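Researcher: Good morning. I'm working through a list of sequences from a screen, and I'd like to move beyond sequence-only analysis. For each chain I'm collecting a predicted structure so we can compare shapes side by side. This is the next one on the list. No need for commentary yet; just the structure.
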Amino acid sequence: MLNGISHLWFLLAIFECYILGKAIEGVLLIPERKKAVLMVMLLLFLILVPYRIPEVRFLCLSRIFTYFPYYLIGMLASKIDFGTLTKYKSKVLGLILMLMLLFVFQQIYVKRGIVTATFGVYLVLLSFTYVRLLNIPKLHSWMISLDKCSMGIYIVHHILIQELITISVFRSLATEYCYIFPCVLFISVTIISWGIVWSAKKNKYPKYIIG
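Model: Good morning. Structure tokens for this chain:
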């Protein structure tokens, strides 16, 4: 348990990020300009540092260096009033499309890990920013359900993947339709695990395990 069993290492890592985040919560009180500088420094750290840190499995300590900068960026982003920035929505979308196009060319012509990581970080952050700029007034009920079940889905999804790929239909898809298979597996695992967690949350004891 102290090393993070299988995919459950992430639960231990995110808990440690939460504890560390609470310990330095005062960073959210710094002026806006300094927050912007800090976010740029965090982005540079994400691109240049985590991939060179030796693996330390005990308590997933090396994972903190990889994931806490993302967590801290989230802490900073939670204090931004995106409602006042909606006028930049189209520009952000344009940047996303441009980066996606550059990413495709990069995957074809310049297959380097650090470049891929750079594109990945900025695409994720810009996508998050764009969603926040949409300023959706009210979420659909299925979105709220997915949000409440997301932790449980994470816990059970890996087990489902291991079981589904033993079924002949999925094995055939994996060998004959290598591009379609990940999409089918993703949809199947999401729906099934969502249903399992939703049902577990309706019961008294299972909800404390995977709910």
